Amino acid sequence: MTRSPPRHLAALFLVVLLSACGRLIPETRIPAPPVSTAPPAGLTSALLLGAAAGPSVASLGLAGDDAATALAAFRESCPRVTTRADQSGLTRPEDWKPACAAATTWPTGDAARFFATWLEPVRIGDGKAHATGYYEPEIAGVRTRRPGYDVPVFKLPPDLVRARPEDAPPTERGTQPLGRYDETGTFVPYYDRAAIEGGALAGKGLEIGWAADPVEFFFLQIQGSGRLIGPDGSVMRIGYAGQNGHPYTGIGSVMRARGLIGEGPGQYSGSMQGIMQYIRENPEAGRELMQQNQSWIFFKELTGDGPLGALNVPVRARSSVAADPAYVPLGAPVWLSLDRPEASGLWIAQDTGGAIKGANRFDTFWGAGSAARTTAGGMSGRGEAVLLLPKGTLQRLNAR
Fold first, then answer.
1. Where are the domains of the chain?
2. Could you tell me where the DSSP H helices lie in 207-359?
3. Domain Lytic transglycosylase MltA: where (predicted)?
4. What percent of the chain shows pLDDT beyond 90?
5. 228: closest CA among 240, 242, 245, 216?
6. How does strand 380-390 pair with strand 138-142?
7. Which of 277, 288, 341, 390 has its CA 20 to 30 A from that of 195?
8. What's the fold here for domain 138-301?
């Protein structure tokens, strides 16, 4: 979810989230070296990487149910996609208005024809895609601290700010870095994970909830949103509110570098379950491992019917996907044809994630619960990606 974050931390997802992210997202095993989706040096957007016509929408073979759920998610994105700037450089807000106007009354039973009528297929770069998965975790947690629930869930601290231009240079994305001003008025990095776990934020009234298990909460932070389930069955949905400004370090990559992942004696599976097993069997080393990821996610309570993605609309199971907004207009439909059939089909780009970077890199959302956790946890698919953009987009871009 804005897994990454915004979300999201993405997204963040966990195959790549564990090895490279921050959301979310976007999962249970460290994959073999992936198909490269990183842009060549100097290319930072889809407009620069190149856009070309993809296969016809009719040839994609959109299934009725798949198209219907995608159309519903697309409708939810329309108020945002028609008003916000597109970082990829591919579209303008006004480009989406005809399709969005038509979507409001388009019959759900004929959704496949909607996409063929109003949108055109566009391939970014070579179109070679890599997709992982993310989900909305459910962990034991309560609003008010009680015995057995000692892991704080913090809201966004008021002293977490962006540096004034005169106090720090901008980041590579052109934004001012996150941090805080100390008692001398000097801008410094914000507290990292180890400092926060050590009590740096204690006593400041920032707790909105308390989790029971620090390991489960760590992985919820990677996903960027989740549900706290109380012993009485009460549910508190929390979502990404911000991040402390420190880079995400995937602990799966750390374990691999330390020789802890593999098939030999004393080694662990690179899955989320395997990483959790190592942390639980080695509490001190496991805590040190988690603190290698200095990033910390702050939360807010969500009252809607789903976790919010980077578009500030709910992400939907089997319909929403996290993407890099430098290469995919948020709100755009994305067709994936992967070696994982369950993830192939039509998705709507509604989220981002810290590990979801580069052209044709996606993180599929699978909802909440044990089934979602299993599916997202094992998701690592490769294949082809096609964006569906407003008709006339390629003609306008080629005329530049």
1. 15-135+308-368+376-398, 138-301
2. 214-223, 251-257, 272-281, 283-291
3. 138-300
4. 70
5. 216
6. unpaired
7. 277
8. Ribosomal Protein L25; Chain P (2.40.240)
Say how far apart CA 4 and CA 10 lie, in whole Å: 2
**Could you tell me which residues come within 8 angstroms of residue 229 by beta carbon, excluding any fewer than 6 positions away?**
138, 139, 140, 141, 235
Strands of 187-188's sheet, edge to edge? 161-162, 178-181, 187-188
pLDDT tens track for 292-326 = 999 999 999 988 777 888 898 989 999 999 999 99
The token duo for 377 is 């946890």
Q: Which of 131, 128, 129, 127 lies closest to 26 in space, CA to CA? A: 131
* DSSP state string for 12-45: ---HHHHHH---S----SPPSSPPP-SPPTT--S
In the CATH hierarchy, which fold is given to the domain comprising 15-135+308-368+376-398?
Answer: Barwin-like endoglucanases (2.40.40)
What pLDDT, in 10s, does the model give residues 187-242? 999 999 999 999 999 999 999 999 999 999 999 998 888 999 999 999 999 988 99
What single letter denotes the amino acid at residue 10? A
